[in-house]
């Protein structure tokens, strides 16, 4: 029998972690070697457990899934990261892909799809939820000069949540001047003149979601 794939489950909801572990236990080639409640814990466990693949949620306390993905891959580039989340906004997808995630799956995916995605990621493929794949394809077809960057989408997402420039700067660890520059680029790319119009246009195009 071939070596089993060692998995680390990272999610801030205990019920989700328990459910995933129970689901994966029935597969002879898959083995959950650890659980993490946030990104920081996932980074620490990867140092000691050296799993083959991490099932990574995105939005968690302490350290989110994107930051954890970047840190894990910087220290252990051989580990595969498969994002498993409820979020499918362009900002979430882009940030995860740019961080080096091997694949992106939504939590409502059938279990057989999850199992197949794990094995595909370990085989060097990049499994993507169909909805996620269509979003990425749409971005590929968008002229580069009109496509918002991952950081610009992050800024716009926070604007949609009602954050001020100062709050955005603090949350993204950038200066207020940089926030203003990002907003100017966003306005130009979306063909709008202010924050409200930018959010409205982004929601209409599916770039962000409330």
UniProtKB/TrEMBL annotation:
<keyword id="KW-0238">DNA-binding</keyword>
<feature type="modified residue" description="4-aspartylphosphate">
    <location>
        <position position="57"/>
    </location>
</feature>
<dbReference type="Pfam" id="PF00072">
    <property type="entry name" value="Response_reg"/>
</dbReference>
<dbReference type="Pfam" id="PF00196">
    <property type="entry name" value="GerE"/>
</dbReference>
<keyword id="KW-0805">Transcription regulation</keyword>
<dbReference type="InterPro" id="IPR001789">
    <property type="entry name" value="Sig_transdc_resp-reg_receiver"/>
</dbReference>
<feature type="domain" description="Response regulatory">
    <location>
        <begin position="6"/>
        <end position="122"/>
    </location>
</feature>
<dbReference type="InterPro" id="IPR039420">
    <property type="entry name" value="WalR-like"/>
</dbReference>
<keyword id="KW-0597">Phosphoprotein</keyword>
<dbReference type="InterPro" id="IPR011006">
    <property type="entry name" value="CheY-like_superfamily"/>
</dbReference>
<protein>
    <submittedName>
        <fullName>DNA-binding response regulator</fullName>
    </submittedName>
</protein>
<dbReference type="GO" id="GO:0000160">
    <property type="term" value="P:phosphorelay signal transduction system"/>
</dbReference>
<dbReference type="GO" id="GO:0003677">
    <property type="term" value="F:DNA binding"/>
</dbReference>
<keyword id="KW-0804">Transcription</keyword>
<dbReference type="GO" id="GO:0006355">
    <property type="term" value="P:regulation of DNA-templated transcription"/>
</dbReference>
<dbReference type="InterPro" id="IPR016032">
    <property type="entry name" value="Sig_transdc_resp-reg_C-effctor"/>
</dbReference>
<feature type="domain" description="HTH luxR-type">
    <location>
        <begin position="141"/>
        <end position="206"/>
    </location>
</feature>
<dbReference type="InterPro" id="IPR058245">
    <property type="entry name" value="NreC/VraR/RcsB-like_REC"/>
</dbReference>
<dbReference type="InterPro" id="IPR000792">
    <property type="entry name" value="Tscrpt_reg_LuxR_C"/>
</dbReference>
């Amino acid at each position: 029998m071939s070596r089993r794939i060692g998995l680390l489950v990272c999610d801030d909801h205990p019920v989700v972690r328990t459910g995933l572990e129970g689901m994966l236990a029935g597969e002879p080639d898959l083995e959950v070697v650890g659980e993490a409640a946030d990104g920081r814990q996932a980074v620490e466990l990867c140092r000691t457990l050296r799993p083959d693949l991490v099932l990574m949620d995105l939005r968690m306390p302490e350290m989110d899934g994107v930051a954890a993905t970047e840190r894990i891959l910087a220290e252990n580039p051989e580990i595969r990261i498969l994002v498993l989340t409820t979020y499918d906004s362009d900002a979430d997808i882009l940030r995860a892909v740019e961080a080096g995630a091997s694949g992106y799956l939504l939590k409502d995916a059938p279990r057989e799809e999850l199992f197949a995605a794990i094995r595909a990621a370990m085989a060097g493929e990049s499994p993507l939820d169909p909805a996620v794949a269509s979003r990425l394809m749409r971005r590929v077809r968008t002229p580069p000069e009109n496509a918002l960057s991952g950081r610009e989408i992050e800024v716009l997402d926070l604007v949609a949540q009602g954050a001020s420039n100062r709050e955005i700067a603090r949350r993204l660890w950038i200066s207020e001047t940089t926030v203003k520059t990002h907003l100017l680029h966003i306005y130009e790319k979306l063909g709008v003149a202010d924050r409200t119009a930018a959010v409205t246009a982004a929601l209409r195009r599916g770039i962000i979601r409330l």
